[in-house]
Amino acid sequence: MSNSTVPRSRAEAETTETASRAADATGEQPGKKKLSGKLSLRLRLRRDRTLILMTLPAVALVLVFNYIPILGNVVAFQEYDPYVSSNGFVAMLESPWVGVEQFERIFADSAFWDAVRNTLVLFGLQLVLFFPIPIVLALLINSVIRPRIRAVSQAILYLPHFFSWVLVITVFQQIFGGAGIIAQTLRQHGYEGFDLMTDPGIFKFLVTAEGVWKDAGWGIIVFLAALASVSPDLYEAAAMDGAGRWRRMWHVTLPALRPVIALLLVLRVGDALTVGFEQILLQRDAVGPGAAEVLDTYVWWNGVRNQDFSYAAAAGLIKGLVSVALVLAANKVAHFMGEQGVYKK
């Protein structure tokens, strides 16, 4: 055997060994061609069967409580009578069809338009006053150097999120009500007391303040999670370039929050017609329906209290369709501004 053959054999052996190691790492067998294309549905189900089994309870809950009730929207085109049969499904089949008569009644009802106006005003206040507050608080907490102070501040702000609306309204009643702390203090010093909890003129601002106190902590957690993903090297590089704290926040922190802000803004616009059913229902009688009636309480009042199920279903269907349109429109705006939104373009 010549000397030139030995190096060649060694090179071939090394090449074969390297290929074998690569095959072991990728699960491929030497000498076999790599399979091209995607896995079949059967293979993917077999591969992910554990994950699928884990998600089945959640999927079942969503189907039962979110998707199957959608079929009940057909009563919006009927004169639904639940007393036709003891079975609600049979009663739905036997109720007479009336076409769009329920929608004509809704659009001719001035109380419906009052509810729409109150809903939109509350949404505007919450968007302008409530939406930016968690961002500001998250930036302030993120600027705190000591971890213990940061953790305590975050816990204090997040704690009201676990309070029920009954407790939140009770706290506000004890402070701003006619027999509250502020009114009693004013009377003790010779001034006239007041009752903000029953004043229709400031009811919408009161509802917004209650929402800020209760749910601002939830938004803070979302924005702090986004801030945690910002590399410290970016702040160090900006500081080395002479950027102060405000410039670092404007050019480093806020751009990092833009995708999260865009996503939450799209979702908030989609919920423009949902401004707090339980919160407002608890205070509706105190200020009157003229100031407190929103679409959710309007649907509840007509469907549950007045037993006009078809009318309430039609109003709820209008609200749902408008909400879907708002989500799609807001998502288009997010794509136009270069953000991802709810889904990729």
UniProtKB/TrEMBL annotation:
InterPro entries: MetI-like (IPR000515), MetI-like_sf (IPR035906), UgpAE/MalFG_permease (IPR050809). Pfam families: BPD_transp_1. It is found in: Cell membrane. The chain crosses the membrane at residues 51-70, 120-141, 162-183, 216-235, 256-277, 309-330. GO terms for cellular component: plasma membrane. One of its GO terms (biological process) is transmembrane transport. Residues 116-330 form the ABC transmembrane type-1 domain. Residues 1-33 are annotated as: Disordered. It is a multi-pass membrane protein. One of its GO terms (molecular function) is ATP binding. Keywords: ATP-binding, Cell membrane, Membrane, Nucleotide-binding, Transmembrane, Transmembrane helix, Transport. It comes from the Bacteria. Belongs to the binding-protein-dependent transport system permease family. PANTHER family: BLL4140 PROTEIN. This is Polysaccharide ABC transporter ATP-binding protein.
